Amino acid sequence: MTDAEIGIEGPGREVPGPALRIIPLGGLGEIGLNMMCLEYGDAIIVVDCGLMFPEDYMLGIDIVIPDITYLKRNREKVKAFFITHGHEDHTGALPFVLREIDAPIYATALTIGLIEEKLIEFGLAKSTVFQTVRPRDVVSIGPFDVEFIRVCHSIADGCALAISTPLGVVVHTGDFKLDQTPVDGEVLDYARFSEYGEKGVLALMSDSTNVEKEGYTLSEKEIGYNLEEIFRRCEGRIIVAAFSSNIHRVQQVFDAAVKFGRKVVLNGKSMLANVRIARTLGYLKAPDGLIADLKELDSLPHHRVVLLTTGSQGEPMSALTRMAMDNHKQLKVERGDTVILSSKFIPGHEKAIATMMNHRGPGTSYRCTGS
Ligand SMILES: [Zn+2]
After folding, report:
1. Which of 292, 304, 303, 295 is nearest to 336 (CA)?
2. Which element (helix H / strand E) includes 198?
3. Ligand 1 centroid vs 161 CA: distance in angstroms?
4. What is the domain range of residue 282?
């Protein structure tokens, strides 16, 4: 049990009965480790199961996962995992937690696709029960009715959850962004949120990343225009570094490449995997012949190439950093290349990004798309 346990007694409840317990095992006041349990009577459901990448002082630590002692002690009560979206800070602890806790995973198709890929790596995919849901589906488990509600985020297919319990509705937003012009047209489902609001909500658990910043986040479509502007002016190779999970951004890079007659070469393990999964599930559209193999790179004229890679945060082992530092077996950032860093800089990574950029040779330029 963590000291952050919250017990909610129903207002005006007449008959004694179980309390609803909302138990955050991670993700409150920190970026990463998102994991929240809801317990009522003899049933527990778990919302998200994320990891955190270690802080600088955690020497020798590869990843951090939530403390699941409470779940292990109440193993038989755990009925299901509900995953809001496919980011690692919401899914990355699953390979470790599923070894201890056996329960099905409910999520949308892309989220399941990304989780499955990870579990295959750990040899756990076959023993895991996946239940694919769509927005507005309601899953009933014990005393909980869980509705998935569409939200926009920097990964496709994200959802919030409205969890109806005998004591009232708990709304868990997952991560979200208010984008009126998302690339896939899947706008946040304002109607469902309003309906729950009208009926009354017992507790709202909301993502609050960046709330202290004034103003609006750029719409994903705006980033597409910025990308096109940069593409229009480039004569040499274009190297775009982005988060491989940001399928909408990948789509916009594909669209810009089509528009300016360039072929896309993918680089980085997660970029290759995520593009494959998203294309298979229909979340990413690429015309035949757009994607070229790394082996073809040398035979393509520079003004016909976009290299789409991981490593936008200057991570020392990432593909882009190794290319920039002349440490990559096949690739190198060369004179005439334009490198576009197409993601926000995660706080704490600025030094690594600057080190990578400062290593550039003459005739290489770095650009950013703004988010
Ligand atoms: Zn997220």
Report:
1. 303
2. helix 190-199
3. 14
4. 220-368
User: What is the residue whose two structure tokens read 């789509």?
Assistant: 251
- pLDDT, residue 210, reads 80
How far does residue 198's CA lie from ligand 1's centre (Å)? 27
Residues 269-286: tens digit of each pLDDT = 999 999 999 999 999 999
87 CA from centroid of ligand 1 (Å): 5
Cα 290 to averaged position of ligand 1 atoms, centre (Å):
28
**Which of 205, 228, 253 is where one domain is finished?**
205
Q: Cα(88) to centroid of ligand 1, in Å?
A: 8
3-state secondary structure of 255: helix
10 Å Cβ neighbour count for 18? 16
pLDDT digits (tens, 9 = 90+) for 192-242: 999 999 999 999 999 988 888 898 888 999 999 999 999 999 999 999 999
Q: Of the candidates 150, 176, 205, which is a domain's last residue?
A: 205
Do 108 and 227 sit in the same domain of this protein? no
Mean pLDDT of the chain: 91
Q: Where are the beta strands (DSSP E) in the chain?
A: 6-8, 20-26, 35-40, 43-47, 78-82, 105-107, 130-132, 138-141, 144-150, 159-165, 168-172, 203-205, 238-241, 263-267, 291-292, 305-309, 338-341, 365-368
CATH number, domain of 338, equals 3.40.50.10710
DSSP string, 129-145: -EEE--TT-EEEETTEE
**Cα 108 to averaged position of ligand 1 atoms, centre (Å):** 14
Residue 249 CA, ligand 1 centroid: distance in Å: 14
197, 96: one domain? yes
What is the tens place of the pLDDT at every residue in 327-348? 888 888 888 999 999 988 777 7
Domain check: are 192 and 283 in the same one?
Answer: no
Ligand 1 center from residue 157 Cα (angstroms):
11
CA distance 298 to 247: 26
SS3 66: coil
Cα atoms in the Cβ-side hemisphere of radius 13 Å centred on 207: 23
245 C-alpha to center of ligand 1: Å? Answer: 10
Q: How far does the centroid of ligand 1 lie from the alpha carbon of residue 66, in Å?
A: 17
